């Protein structure tokens, strides 16, 4: 993660169009890529890809976050409790809990943040 690059596309994807979710985003060498699916004042949905050796630093959100693995495998540590998620599995990261995402190889996920209820 030393030379990590993050690419972010905040433009929402086109509505009323069918997508294969795992194909919305590609891998870029030595990078984390974030693509916005929907962005609203009440929350957002993003799809993310992580190249080999990449991950996210520990963070804490004031909002509940739903993480769904769409390709690969990752360890997600929530409030010091490690969970291993495989393709098709998901977890809700509770608001105000420190969390860390460590992929095991290339990895893609959908992240949904719901902002209502905690303001």
Automatic annotation (TrEMBL):
It comes from the Bacteria. PANTHER family: SLR8022 PROTEIN (PTHR37694). This is Cupin. The lineage of its organism: Bacteria, Pseudomonadati, Bacteroidota, Flavobacteriia, Flavobacteriales.
């Amino acid at each position: 993660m030393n030379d990590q690059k993050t690419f972010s596309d905040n433009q929402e994807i086109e509505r009323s169009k069918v997508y294969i979710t795992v194909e919305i985003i590609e891998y870029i060498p030595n990078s984390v890529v974030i693509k916005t699916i929907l962005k609203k004042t009440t929350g957002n949905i993003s799809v993310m890809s992580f190249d080999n050796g990449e991950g996210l630093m520990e963070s804490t959100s004031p909002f509940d976050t739903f993480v769904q693995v769409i390709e690969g495998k990752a360890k997600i540590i929530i409030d010091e409790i490690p969970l291993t998620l495989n393709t098709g599995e998901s977890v809700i990261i509770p608001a105000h809990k420190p969390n860390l995402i460590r992929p095991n190889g290339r990895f893609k996920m959908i992240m949904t943040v719901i902002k209502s209820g905690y303001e």
